[in-house]
Design goal:
CATH superfamily of the largest domain: MoaB/Mog-like domain
Number of domains: 4
Largest sheet: 6 strands, mixed
CATH class of the largest domain: Alpha Beta
Helix content: 10-25%
Shape: elongated
Structural class: alpha/beta
Distance between the termini: 23 Å
Strand order of the largest sheet: 17-14-18-22-21-19
CATH architecture of the largest domain: 3-Layer(aba) Sandwich
Strand content: 25-35%
Bound molecules: adenosine monophosphate, magnesium ion
């Protein structure tokens, strides 16, 4: 399990920028050390534990990039076409031991190994066969054309996959191309998830007239799973200090991270703060981010706790900026900074300087073909529809106070966040 010191999340200033928060997390959260080997078919989404050097070159042998005809460079037609007698036929998977004869051409297919001493391939579309059955090759082809030399993709011994890489399908493909059957990865980060609040009922349970169904827990669990975590669903804790403390204490030590939602503002009925303080240490991070509210950062028996706000949109946005980097750091993953893609705003917006804001937005094609972002018409941090009906977040940096239609802004697609 992760073992962090009690003052791990301590921070000096009153307000914290998003970059400061991410910087603190990446420098203070240490990676768990438990590794396991997974079959390639199960490796997608896992964090690679060790560097992988290419055990063989890719491609492993020099081969033809096209269906066509191979020959020696010395035989390449100079200024006029030239007819060649055929010497052999090599299909993909076939192998020819004897060098190609000077003055001859060999029929060859895509992916077939080049015969010894053949150096260039003519595409079959550029070739004609004359009445005597000879192959007529046109002039002007470059030496070495249409050939894929061994190792042109990756030379043998090259550092091909880096420790800390969160594996995506092409990484898995590369490991397979090396003939590997499994990869050593960091074991899944175990996260305990609680919702807090007397007003919450779990779907499937009766809902009193003053209650709403708990939606955050399901959103957060789904987001964690997309980050490769193993999630324990621990249901809803009531707004009462001792039961909160008991619930949290029980899971610390068996999990790498405890995640809660709700109850971390500074109102009288926000009991998570007091509960964590009674069994561990806690600091409230007042992040300069909207939607946001304070995020509680705690340590219980060495296990980190993150308390997200209860409003669904604030919970979503703070997850992205606090939980995502924490999970990556716990898994020893390379940092994956979020890079907003520039596009045009199709809306007007005013904001305060000094804090970063995220505007829920949809993409559309403008008349000139450019991409632009339209703003969701309402702003409440409780509106789940605002997340469901949009494509991503427009990021407005700390210095921006004003957005006008046509202005360049940065856009983070929901698809890129997890
Ligand atoms: P809190 O952060 O506890 O003050 O809650 C802020 C708002 O978010 C309140 O309107 C809560 O009812 C709502 N809320 C809190 N937790 C959840 C949850 N798990 N699912 C949906 N809404 C929630
Ligand atoms: Mg509450």
């Amino acid at each position: 399990m992760a073992q962090l010191s009690d003052d791990c999340f301590a921070f000096g200033g009153p307000m914290m920028s998003v970059d400061e928060a991410v910087g603190l997390i990446t420098t203070r959260v240490s990676a768990i050390a438990d590794l396991e080997t997974v079959a390639l078919a199960d490796a997608d989404g896992r964090v690679l534990a060790r560097d992988v050097a290419a055990p063989l070159p890719l491609p492993p042998f020099t081969n033809s990039a096209v269906d066509g005809y191979a020959l020696r460079n010395a035989d390449l037609p100079g200024s006029a076409e030239r007819a060649f007698p055929l010497d052999g036929r090599i299909q993909a998977g076939g192998l020819v031991q004897a060098p190609i004869r000077p003055g001859h051409t060999a029929r060859i297919f895509t992916g077939a190994p080049m015969p010894p001493e053949a150096e260039t391939v003519f595409m079959q579309e550029d070739v004609r066969i004359d009445d005597s059955g000879k192959i007529v090759l046109p002039p002007g082809l470059k030496r070495g054309a249409n050939v894929r030399p061994a190792g042109e993709d990756i030379p043998q011994g090259h550092l091909a996959l880096r420790a800390g890489q969160r594996l995506r399908p092409p990484h898995v493909a590369l490991a397979a191309a090396f003939g590997l059957t499994g990869l050593e990865v960091v074991r899944r980060i175990r996260v305990a998830v609680f919702s807090t609040g007397d007003e919450l009922a779990s779907p499937g349970e009766p809902r009193a007239a003053s209650q709403l169904f708990d939606s955050n827990r399901f959103m957060l669990m789904a987001m964690l799973r997309r980050l490769g975590c193993e999630v324990s669903d621990l249901g809803i804790l009531r707004d009462e200090r001792s039961s909160l403390a008991n619930g949290l204490k029980q899971v610390a030590g068996h999990h790498d991270l405890i995640l809660t939602t709700g109850g971390v503002s500074t109102g009288e009925e926000d009991h998570v703060k007091a509960a964590v303080e009674s069994i561990g240490s806690l600091v409230l991070w007042r992040m300069a981010i909207k939607p946001g509210r304070p995020v509680a950062m705690g340590i219980i028996d060495g296990t980190p706790l993150i308390g997200l706000p209860g409003n669904p949109v604030a919970s979503f946005v703070t997850f992205v900026h606090v939980v995502r980097p924490t999970v990556l750091a716990l898994a020893g993953g390379l940092p994956e900074p979020l890079t907003p893609i520039p596009l045009r705003a199709a809306f007007t917006y005013r904001k305060k300087a000094g804090r970063r804001e995220y505007v829920r937005a949809s993409l559309r094609r403008a008349q000139d073909g450019g991409l632009e972002a339209t703003k969701f018409p309402r702003e409440g941090a409780g509106l789940l529809s605002s997340l469901v009906e949009t494509d991503g977040l427009v990021e407005l940096g700390e210095d921006i106070t004003n957005v006008e239609p046509g202005q360049d802004v940065g856009f983070l697609s929901y698809a890129d966040l997890l």
